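Example (one chain per record):
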Amino acid sequence: MAVSVVIAGGGTGGHIEPALALADAVRLAEPETLITCLGTERGLETRLVPMRGYDLALIPPVPLPRGLTPELASVPGRLRDAVRSTGKILSRVHADVLIGFGGYVATPGYLAARRARLPIVVHEANARPGLANRIGAVLTRYVYTGQPGTRLLHAAYLGIPIRRQIAGLDRLALADKARAHFGLQPDLPVLLVTGGSQGAASLNQAVLGAAATLRAVGVQVLHVVGPKNADVAVPPGPVPYVVLPYLDRMDLGYAAADFALCRAGAMTCAELTAVGLPAAYVPLPHGNGEQRLNAEPIEEAGGGLIIDDADLSAEWITEALLPILLDGELVAAMSQAAAATGNRAADTELAARVLDLGHEQQQLAPRPIRSAGRRRAGR
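Predicted structure:
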């Protein structure tokens, strides 16, 4: 009988992207699997999950206040309602296993699955675990992390599931085609600059300030500036400097590039190391410091370097980064080091473990056969 997998990974892209990569791997391994994604009406999953062809079941959000506020008193009641709603979903889809990736929907998912005596899998992408996954790790021994050294009960390092489009990318084989796609020359080094889907002002300012020097010495730039910055002025130069508001074919961007300048989100680090693209990582200057922790293993392995946002400037690019870009042997060595820290197969490995648990659960607790009219997710 087909396994029924429930995935709790809603909220932000950092939770949704690995969740959907896992869903794709499960569907590829066993196409008849019933896949249900948990989410809330306020998360990105309301658009991304249906777009990828999966069923989305909504539950009430339970955000935790950051401090002692009046809202804290409402948390137990809201959590109880969310757990009850999740339990009904688990029963309706005859769930065999639940996997959570953290965020608002994971805690109700873990608690409802525990109440239903279902196997629970936890995946933590960041170096510093969130509260939801710290709770989940207490309830199961199947806990996997995206970063080596993450402190979480029962944790085993696995890597982060990424899109098969990226995980299966052969950068060298696709390089000429990718460069032609962007109007870049095939025989000059390319620096990919990206600050995420919205761009990053500090990265944009520093690279644009160094644009004239970069172009003068033959370094091409593929610069994803963000949708609100598409009208930036680029100093003239003899080689291409391509400005894009958004890059929806990131696989082509990676294939075209020799080096990247970027933030250090968990998914970014996972994708760059999986394809072996070295980078200068600029961690977000706010938050809990997890972006620096994400990039540190890569820097220690020689697959990249870290520069603080406050220290990033046009001068740093021309004085520190440019000599690296012009040293082909060094870039090649850094590429190999980056690839050695990544895991292209995290999606398929995690999918195999989830499906094994689902089949084991079916052996322990057989469930009613679904009606013939029920269609599986993803069709």
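Caption: The first helix runs from residue 13 to 29.
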